[in-house]
C-alpha cells in the first residue's frame, strides 16, 4: 500500500480518523503522475469515476484501486501497486505524497 502525503503527515493521519471530506473509492499510483495530476485538479471526484480511473491506471501499470480522501486543502491518495517493489521504503512500501490546491507537492 502506498500512502501519499509528504509535507503534512499529521494532517494525513488525522484525516484517516475522519477529519476532512469523505473517502472516495479510487486512487492512482505514483507511476502515473500524469494521470494523477489530471484527476486531482478536479474539485470533486465521485464514485462514478472509479471505473474510468481504474481502467486508465491499469493501462499504465497493474495496480489495485484503494481510495482517496480530502483533508482540508489536501488531496490524499492511497493505492497498492501489484507486483511492483518500491525501493528504499519501509517493508509496507509506504510512500507519502500530497496534493495541495490541485498541485502535486514533491
From TrEMBL:
Domain Flavin reductase like: from-to ranges: 36-103
InterPro entries linked: Flavin_Rdtase-like_dom (IPR002563), Split_barrel_FMN-bd (IPR012349)
Record GO terms (molecular function): FMN binding
The organism's place on the tree of life at top rank: Eukaryota
Name recorded for this polypeptide: Flavin reductase like domain-containing protein
Amino acid at each position: 500500500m502506498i500512502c501519499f502525503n509528504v509535507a503534512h503527515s499529521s494532517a494525513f493521519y488525522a484525516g484517516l480518523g475522519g477529519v476532512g471530506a469523505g473517502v472516495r473509492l479510487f486512487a492512482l499510483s505514483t507511476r502515473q503522475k500524469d494521470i494523477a495530476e489530471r484527476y486531482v485538479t478536479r474539485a470533486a471526484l465521485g464514485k462514478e469515476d472509479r471505473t474510468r480511473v481504474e481502467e486508465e491506471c491499469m493501462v499504465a501499470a497493474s495496480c489495485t484501486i484503494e481510495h482517496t480522501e480530502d483533508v482540508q486543502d489536501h488531496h490524499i491518495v492511497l493505492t497498492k501497486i501489484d507486483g511492483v517493489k518500491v525501493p528504499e521504503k519501509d517493508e509496507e512500501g509506504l510512500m507519502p505524497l500530497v496534493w495541495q490546491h490541485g498541485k502535486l507537492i514533491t
